[in-house]
Amino acid sequence: MSLPVLSDRPAMRFAQSDAPLPLYITEGGLPAALTEAQVAWAKAQGFTGALGQICVLPDAEGGLSAALFGWGSAASRARGRFHLARAATALPEGVWSLQGDLSSAASEEAALGWLLAGYAYERYAKAAAPKARLHCPAGLDAARLEAIAAGEALTRDLINTPANDMGPEELERAIKDLADQHGAELKSIIGEKLVEKGFPLIYAVGQASPRAPRLVEMRWGSEGPELTLVGKGVCFDTGGLNLKPGSSMGLMKKDMGGAATVLGLAHMIMALKLPLRLRVLVPTVENAVSGNAFRPQDVYTSRKGLTVEINNTDAEGRLVLADALAYADEENPDLVLCMATLTGAARVALGPDVPPFYTDDEDLAAALAEGAAQVADPLWRMPFWCPYEDKIEPGIADLDNAPAGGMAGSITAALFLRRFVTETEGFVHFDIYGWQPSAAPARPKGGVGQGARAILAALPAMLGLPA
């Protein structure tokens, strides 16, 4: 059964209509365009313009004529995102057109949120799609927003698929489907050939599983700056011999969320035909338990030549990324972006909504911060704190994959990864969660992309591309 990625989802596309119904966005007073009867109806329904409040207006025959959506105050809107997505799931069937004094950025967020509200994961059970459709607001690029929504749908589909149907081979197949769609080139290194080709850490993590580990590489584009995306593809993480408790293992189908997110971003880039050379590297494994599993205090020599002592087999993500980042670094691309569901420490520090990112480049950091704010895709910069470097140096080897003490876990993981990117000046690491713990507007409970839209918005500044 092939993975249903990038399927045609009408609810995630803009509708075409010559006469869409007006959906008035209002903060307080009622729109001047309403008739006296509509004003009376809205008041009788108790419509005040509070955030998320919806009032459907009838015509003289009792059919639909328009609707009101409360935009609330700036303070209330600051407590969330994609507020208009509530209308997508609450309004009756029809094609609707936004009417109101929204800024371009607010209009784009509203329109994208509406599209994202049409997402449902339907591999194993059907879900009712919203019947209300949106006419693309004037001045917005419909094709761009639909490409972003499709990339996000791909990310969510991949994360939501359980590990019995999403192992390394299945993830490779999904990447091949994506490559075929966009005319990209694909190659893979599988099983023991990883050792022969110089990827010992990837093989070490995945060797205990009957599902062979692999490194999947996709290339697209022939001109422009080179962008390399590296995504952690641990399809399930038992913790290895440092076995996770059941409460920590329950969500480990999402441990390939970094790979899923870079693939969603890659779709956006290729669908929009950005003028760059794209390289995607996905080290994909299953961290399992068997007699040949890698062990605590084993020492491996990485592709970079750095030796690594294994002090916790549950800190496996940084190991597979280390070999992939060293491989990326060998080409000295213009920019390397690494995405991974890497540490619980990041969640403790910033919660599920706000992923930290790490970079030494002030211009890259500023571009990402601006892009995150522009498209409502929050990120927060954390430091490569050099005084903690000694925490990842165990003495018996060059590096320790799991420093003792438990403090600054996201920072020390980022410092570990930075050791494998020495030739490339532009490097950013994202420690994402990739999961929506409870439903929110435009984000049902389950897999979710984080950072991809912010990166997309920041790429022109980061790589000198046309805006």
Automatic annotation (TrEMBL):
InterPro entries, A to Z: Leucine_aapep/pepB, Macro_dom-like, Peptidase_M17_C, Peptidase_M17_N_1
Pfam name, any one: Peptidase_M17_N_1
Presence of the UniProt keyword Manganese in the record: yes
GO molecular function term, any single one: aminopeptidase activity
UniProt keyword list: Aminopeptidase, Hydrolase, Manganese, Protease
Domain Cytosol aminopeptidase: 312-319
Similarity section: Belongs to the peptidase M17 family.
Protein name: Leucyl aminopeptidase family protein
Organism, scientific name: Thioclava litoralis
